[in-house]
Design goal:
The chain is an alpha/beta fold. The protein has four domains: about 180 residues, Acyl-CoA Binding Protein, CATH 1.20.80; about 100 residues, D-amino Acid Aminotransferase, Chain A, domain 1 (2-Layer Sandwich); about 130 residues, 3-Layer(bba) Sandwich (Glucose Oxidase, domain 1); about 350 residues, TIM Barrel. It has 34 helices and 32 strands. Strand 31, helix 33 and strand 32 form a beta-alpha-beta unit. Helix 14 crosses helix 19 and helix 15 crosses helix 19. The longest helix is centred in the last third of the chain and has 26 residues. The protein binds adenosine-5'-diphosphate and magnesium ion (MG) (2 copies). Adenosine-5'-diphosphate (ADP) binds next to strand 4, strand 6, strand 10 and strand 11.
């Protein structure tokens, strides 16, 4: 078996499409090499070795050692060096790389191959002993930390100690001779901790690092990450071993990261950051604030540090060409790592770049115009869930801005909240219902939970590619990074902004579009959805088969949904209209009357209010379908909660409060969600259905006249299990339609259908469809009733179920396709058998969930219906489902 694939010198044994075998990093290094780009030569040990390793008691295949040796020789020939050679030593990096990038895996070890001998040769060749010893001590620190498990703070202490004794403040002031002494201390520290010396043998170093990469595949951190992201455990990781190039060889050397387009806005402009005389992750670590790569970005940022373009024009020009070449080759925006060693450019990584939703849209649309992508491909390039980010507010341009400081606009959107300094504080405040901005010098992976809890993130250090910036963009949260004028004092709980003192708890606003930090709360604007959004959605709309409707009952929500492109209302929950203060008393009167006459009197008061509600909706939806569901929840939800409320109702009906209290007690149920609700209420109290039907029909007549387009009306009966239930209610509705027609002379087109939200309804769909003219799958209740799990009580154990791998996803968020989905499929098939062409939709939470939408497409539903803010997501997901 071939376990090792080499790359470098304009060729490679692997290629970009071999990610499962070589991991993402290895496959793309191979591809770049074959494209003739300057990639330091190296080789990839395949993911199959990782699989073998765990299947065989953590041992390697027999042929591996020889294959690694041969590959090292190839690299040696390509570089004119030899691994472990005392005159011309080859140094390498050891890098992990799974199919998808995965935090939790072993950190990269740089400068491997250095020892007491080779360090001298490296220094002599570079004419710079300081550089050589600096690299050696970095290697000992890194290797001891990630491979040998020695706590890195011990090394820091030695270093600090040395600086203090010699009154030095910067690492760069430490001389070569001093480093030699420090290295000795580092080595004895390792020996003391491990009981054996720091490995001097390069082979031992290499196999130690390789073992550490494979070992890190099964660490708790890596496992957790895989579980959260649905990454199978048997994928395994690859190991990349690559000749070192040095960005820390003085002022003509540098290291950096770049995006071929702006990952925040999508603008077609090379975008990135670098540091002179630096190595590895210095740029993203936020230790020094990096410099811009292009002149353009430098000017826009108003930076006084020179750009790479100005500083190293030749290397820059080559880099720019390579960026263009890679983008055209991969037909996607790339995220790159590079190093310049004494003026010579080297490429160290390329991959598809993470981007904001705004950037994803712009890049997809631009690339179609540039001829790089087809419209279908562009549709597939945007992740539907990410559109959510675009729906975030921005600061009203007319609002007054009290600017406290300015940082980098690291992630778009604006947010206001109280200042907190730790992730724990952020979480606690969030749990208490407060909105906070997480303010930190810089963030690290331990801050993820705090970033989740915060409305936005502000850092005083680090650039556009710092941890805070990258993670915030991924989360769709506003972020201002690298606001260097802020002095954050965690201990005192203060931020000093050029003399202006802000305290923990003070409200600030951050503007991710400009990088401004503003005092107090600032007026925001809701986003407008035109431009690239409109174009891509237009393509999506042309491709999708299913319609997208919304769940809405207020005029405000309905209008928003229309703007977002809803093609009708799939679910209007009439009971939501019952809670408004002007009518709740009448609703309570209706419920608490123990006789039909009393109920009818109260319903008569509600009729005009409901009529107006419906009229508004019909007018906004102007001829688009509107599905109105009759009263659904158990009556006790409307009952007065306090004595005062009870008194009000008693006075309104003119009965004794005590009698009323008794009636309220009678209405109590053990299990209201499975109790007297839905069509069961309408069967008991048909006058409720009559009032609602009258309000609906009268409103339809009026709205039809007013708008000139007849209302497209669908009346939906909830919680039907028996065909007979539907028939009883339907009779009342039909009678009311006839009555209103008689009174107004207007013939109204309407359909009567049902929610399918009980297993019995799904199974009996063939029978029920004899009466029902449409079905809407109410998958919230259907999930509850299929699993026998109450949604409101599920939180206490569903988390455990997920952790133990019993279920992959919360079935209330993403449709359980095997179980609940099976019922939806059965319901659809049986319904269609009875009534070919019966209209089928879904109106649970799942109607706005992309993977559930794919399922709906696969069984041929006619539409999905979801909350207004998810309508754009559903439109895009429905289009993707057809491609
Ligand atoms: P990650 O997946 O965390 O980005 P990488 O393996 O890409 O880890 O490397 C971490 C850092 O080390 C990056 O900045 C990378 O460019 C740098 N690096 C890796 N290999 C080499 C090498 N052979 N020479 C110089 N720098 C390297
Ligand atoms: Mg890393
Ligand atoms: Mg990398």
């Amino acid at each position: 078996t071939k376990w090792v694939f080499t790359f470098g010198n304009g060729s490679a044994e692997g290629a970009a499409d071999m990610k499962s075998l070589l991991g993402g990093k290895g496959a793309n290094l191979a591809e770049m090499s074959s494209l003739g780009l300057p990639v330091p030569p190296g080789f990839t040990i395949t993911t199959e070795v990782c699989t073998y390793y765990y299947a065989n008691g953590q041992s390697y295949p027999d042929e591996l050692a020889a294959q690694v040796k041969a590959a090292l020789d190839t690299v040696g020939v390509a570089t004119g060096r030899g691994f472990g050679d005392k005159d011309k030593p080859l140094l390498v990096s050891v890098r992990s790389g799974a199919r998808v990038s995965m935090p939790g895996m072993m950190d990269t070890v740089l400068n491997l191959g250095l020892n007491d001998e080779t360090v001298k040769a490296i220094g002599a060749a570079a004419h710079d002993m300081r550089f050589a010893y600096d690299s050696y001590r970095r290697f000992i620190q890194m290797y001891a930390d990630v491979v040998l498990g020695v706590d890195h703070s011990e090394f820091e202490e030695v270093l600090e100690d040395h600086k203090e004794r010699n009154e030095l403040s910067l690492d760069t002031e430490i001389t070569a001779e001093d480093w030699v002494g420090i290295i000795e201390k580092f080595k004895s520290l390792v020996e003391r901790d491990l009981g054996r010396p720091f490995p001097q043998d390069p082979d031992e170093q290499l196999w130690g690092a390789i073992g550490a990469v494979f070992g890190s595949w099964e660490t708790p951190r890596a496992k957790t990450y895989r579980r959260l992201h649905d990454i199978p455990g048997d994928w395994g990781t690859a190991v990349n071993v690559q000749a070192m190039v040095f960005g820390n060889m003085g002022e003509t050397s540098a290291t950096g990261v770049a995006f071929t387009r702006n990952p925040s806005t999508g603008e077609r402009a090379l975008y990135g950051e670098f540091l002179v005389n630096a190595q590895g992750e210095d740029v993203v670590a936020g230790i020094r604030t990096p410099q811009d790569i292009t002149e353009k970005a430098k000017k826009e940022a108003g930076s006084d540090k020179p750009s790479l373009e100005a500083l190293m024009p030749e290397a820059f020009a080559e880099f720019r060409d390579i960026c263009d070449k890679l983008e055209t080759h991969y037909r996607d925006m790339q995220d790159l790592e590079f190093t310049i060693e004494q003026g010579k450019l080297w490429m160290l990584q390329t991959r598809s770049g993470k981007r904001t939703a705004k950037a994803a849209l712009k890049i997809a649309v631009d690339m179609v115009a540039e001829g790089l992508l087809s419209e279908e491909e562009a549709i597939m390039r945007v992740e539907p869930g990410a559109l959510d980010q675009l729906l975030h507010p921005t600061i009203d341009p007319a609002a007054k801005r009290d600017i406290v400081a300015t940082g980098l606009p690291a992630s778009p959107g604006a947010a206001s909240g109280a200042i907190v300094f730790t992730s724990e504080e952020a979480e606690q405040a969030r749990a208490a219902g407060k909105r906070v901005i997480l303010v930190r010098v810089e963030t690290s992976p331990e801050d993820i939970h705090g970033m989740h809890a915060a409305e936005g993130i502000l850092t005083s250090r680090g650039g556009m590619t710092s941890h805070a910036a990258v993670v915030a963009r991924g989360m769709g949260k506003p972020c201002v990074a690298g606001a260097g004028s802020l002095r954050i004092d965690y201990r005192k709980g203060t931020v000093n902004a050029a003399g202006r003192l802000l305290n923990k708890g003070d409200i600030i606003t951050i503007d991710g579009a400009t990088g401004q930090i503003l005092a107090g709360e600032v007026a925001m604007l809701q986003p407008t959805l035109s431009g690239d959004f409109g174009i891509l959605m237009g393509w999506a709309d042309a491709k999708r088969r299913m319609k997208v409707r919304t769940n809405a009952e207020t005029p405000a929500d309905t209008r928003v949904a229309r703007e977002f492109g809803a093609e009708g209302i799939g679910l209007c929950r009439t009971e939501h209209m019952f809670f408004d203060s002007d009518r709740i008393i009448a609703v309570r009167e209706m419920i608490l009357s123990d006789e039909e006459t009393g109920r009818r009197a109260a319903l008569a008061k509600l009729l005009p209010m409901q009529r107006n509600d419906f009229k508004d909706l019909f007018e906004i939806m102007k001829g688009l379908p509107v599905t109105i569901r009759l009263l659904d929840p158990p009556l006790h939800e409307f009952l007065p909660k306090t004595d005062e409320e009870l008194g009000e109702v008693a006075a309104a009906i003119g009965v004794d409060a005590e009698k009323l209290r008794q009636r309220a007690l009678d209405l109590e149920e053990f299990n209201p969600m499975l109790g007297h609700r839905g069509c069961r209420l309408l069967v008991s109290y048909p006058e409720i259905a009559e009032m609602q039907a009258r309000a609906i029909f009268e409103a339809a007549v009026e709205a039809g006249k007013k708008t000139g387009s007849p209302v497209h009306l669908e009346i939906m009966v909830p919680l039907v299990g028996l065909k007979g239930e539907l028939d009883l209610v339907k009779d009342r509705i039909v009678a009311m339609a006839d009555a209103v027609k008689g009174e107004t002379g207007v013939e109204i087109n309407y359909q009567v259908g049902t929610m399918v939200e009980l297993p019995r309804a799904a199974l009996q769909a063939g029978e029920i469809a004899k009466s029902a003219e449409f079905f809407s799958f109410g998958t919230n209740d259907l999930t509850q009733t299929t699993f026998g799990i109450s949604r409101d009580d599920a939180a206490s154990f569903l988390g455990t179920y997920q952790a133990k791998g019993l279920i992959e996803q919360d079935p209330f968020v993403s449709l359980d396709q095997d179980g609940v989905g099976e019922l939806v499929r059965i319901g659809s098939e049986r319904g269609r058998q009875t009534r070919p062409g019966i209209k089928l939709g879904i109106c649970g939470e799942h109607g706005g969930d992309p993977s559930s939408i794919h399922f709906c497409e696969s069984i041929g539903l006619d539409y999905v219906s979801c909350s207004p803010f998810r309508v754009p997501i559903a439109r895009l997901a429905a289009a993707q489902a057809t491609l």
